[in-house]
Amino acid sequence: MTLLEFARGPALQVSVLIMIAGIFWRLAGILLLRRRPQLAAPRISPIGQIGGGLSTIMSRFVPRRTFWPRIAVSVVLSAVFHFGLAIILLAGAPHILLIHQLTGFTWPNLPKGLIVIVSGMTLAALIALLIRRVGHPVLRLLSTTDDYLSWLLVFLPVLTGILLSGEALAEYGTLLALHILSVELMMIWLPFGKLMHSALVFAGRGVMGANFARKGAAT
Amino acid sequence: MTGPAASPTPPAIVPDAGAVAKAMRSFIADVGPTAALAMESCVHCGRCAEACQFYVQTGDPRYTPIHKIAPFKQAYSREIGPFAFAYKAFGLAPDVTAAELGNWQELLYDSCNMCGRCSLICPMGIDIADLVEQARHGMFDAGLAPADYLGALAEKEHATGSPFGLSTNQFRDMLHEIGSKHGVVMHVDEARADIVPTVSSIDLKTYPGSMAAIAKILNHMGASWTFRTDGFDADNVSLTAGDRMGQEAVTRGIVEAALACGAKTVVMPECGHSFTEMRWEAANTFGRELPFRVLQITELLAEGLNDGRIRVNKVAESATYHDACQLSRRGGATAAPRIILNALGVDLHEMEDAGETNWCCGGGGGVALIKRAQPLRDKAFEIKRRQVEATGVATVYTSCSGCRQTLDHGGKATNWNKTVASLLELVADNLKD
Q: What is the ipTM of this complex?
């Protein structure tokens, strides 16, 4: 079995299994805790509360204006790397091809050169975020092994993806295998660390938004 | 950041191991899906620090809001989190030590107003203020609340219903005395009444005129109302101390007093946290929806002005308004004071960040009650002072006695030439005959 065959075969199966099982386990561990009912008379209807939850999911993508001067660097760097990842994943030709093979859906891709530029920006943003995490007193205090491991496991797929697109440093098959394996490592870690926020962010914002909307408070 | 880490650090207390275990058990007992989701979601982005006045004013990273619950999050991960078994097996989240928890007293009490500004900035939607409240439950149960609370206010409140230990007879005498002094008819302990107003212990001690004001307004409205000496002090210091039993005792006293006279509306005083408790928490404590409305005094006034039961003269005055965090940002009562000020014709000069993103006065969440926290509190007050100065007006109105007191104290400490006044008293002073 070649490295590429391993990456596309057993490694993929195991990583997908661990990721799905881990996500379910973690979500169940949260959602099955004893729920305390909220009995105070709400200011708005249940539909309004759901609306508050949904609107908060969207509104928290952009911080309130008053907060911007103090968090602009964090917001911009985070936005660049999150949007960058989304563009690479959803508009890169090889990824669209993969999605087509898996689901039958397809759509036009962005030019390879543009994807490489976006990848470079994403990589730069990730490096800047790491430097900030190490250098900023607040971030240094908050950071755990998970923060650095999660960073590495997002960084590696982007790096190997750039190398793959330029077929640099190694032959194509090896680079592809390394790229796939790096993604699989990320998938394996996703349920256990902060990468899980990719799912929890919607639940967290939604629950807070609904709770605060219930009070007629700021969401 | 405005400067180096210069915040005063009180001497750390060192609890025994039993107290630590008790604190953690108590915290964990409170954790439901919402709190768990909050603790699981944090990505350590640090933005919450930038919304916190204690961090913004000192630059001390320890004041980062989410860091204030760190030992409790550690206990959650170790004891009931989805991967608790792994945390234990691999020693990923060691037991919180006594020394660690002792250091956290200052972070959870002295340097958190529970103002919830951090909850608004969090990209994950974590209500950190709520987690701090839960962590304080653990601290209180373990005997780790600051001595200002334990030795005095909360313990007295738990025992008597009033943080100053005021008896029902003393309260009755005080009300009649205030009525005589202000020439207002006081309704006290009437058997039936539609409206039951409550008071804040700060009003009892420092601003007794506010009780005359509410009486004057309710009389003006022609309302059926009564103070109840069996449930009058809504302050609920216990809530901010983390004393769930005391919190429930205060709330139960007021609810039972209101039920006894068939009240349709219970009016909360000019006080932020008491509104949070009675409006949003009391029903949960009782296990059912309360059979009466709970209104903060500004909501009652706005309602009365809107439906014509309250008629006021116009006031030729320019002023600004300080929002109490628990009333506006966290309570949903942001509009009411502005309706009142508009009805009075006050030329309102809003501060920057007015309304939902306002800055706390510096004393919320019980910080005003902790003597050693004063230097830190003064730094927090500095933001508010600057913002008021920028409006160019001479008077600051507010609807929270706690804020009023903190602003008064902060003003005195800095020889401030501003007047801090009660919105309730402004309405009472300008009723049409």
A: 0.95
Q: Tell me B96's DSSP state.
A: P
**H/E element holding A85?**
helix A68-91
> Contacts of residue B328 in chain A, CB cutoff 8 Å?
218
Is A36 inside a domain boundary? no
Which residues, other chains included, contact B119 with Cβ-Cβ below 8 Å and sequence gap of 6+? A208, B126, B127, B128, B129, B130
- My answer on whether B115 and B153 are in the same domain is no
Query: Which helix (H) or strand (E) segment is B319 a member of?
Result: strand B318-322
Task: Read off the pTM.
Answer: 0.93
**What are the backbone angles phi and psi of residue B318, rounded to the nearest 5°?**
-105, 135
Q: Answer yes or no: is A47 within a domain.
A: no
CA A115/CA B361 separation, integer angstroms: 49
Separation CA A46–CA A214 (nearest Å): 8
Residues B40 and B63 reside in one and the same domain: yes
Q: How far is C-alpha A120 from the chain's CA centre?
A: 18
Kindly report the backbone phi and psi dihedral angles of residue B392, in degrees, each rounded to the nearest multiple of 5, phi listed first.
80, 5
Same domain, B187 and B129: no
Tell me which DSSP letter residue B431 carries. Answer: B
pLDDT tens, position by position, B51-107:
999 999 999 999 999 999 999 999 999 999 999 998 888 887 777 888 888 889 999
Q: Which residues of A touch B34 (CB under 8 A)?
A: 207, 211
Contact: A138, B331; criterion CB under 8 Å? no
Residues spanned by the domain of B262: 149-304
Q: Which letter, b or e, does each residue of B102-126 get, where b requires 16 or more Cβ atoms within 10 Å of its Cβ?
A: bbbbbbbbbbbbbbbbbbbbbbbbb
Q: Is B236 left (phi over 0), alpha (psi -120 to 50) or beta?
A: left
- The C-alpha of A1 sits at a distance from chain B's nearest C-alpha, in angstroms, of 33
Record: contact B32-A33, CB cut-off 8 A? yes
Domain range for A200 is: 3-19+71-214
State pLDDT tens for residues B3-44: 334 444 554 566 676 788 888 888 898 899 999 999 999 999
Tell me which chain B residue has its CA closest to the CA of residue A130.
Answer: B45
CATH code, A202 = 1.20.950.20
CB–CB of B313/B385 below 8 Å? no
Say if CB B351 and CB B358 are below 8 A apart: yes
Residues 6+ away with beta carbon under 8 Å from B21: none
Distance CA B433, CA B431 (A): 6
Q: How far is B332 from chain A (nearest CA, A)?
A: 4
- Give the span between the Cα atoms of A154 and A141, in whole angstroms: 22
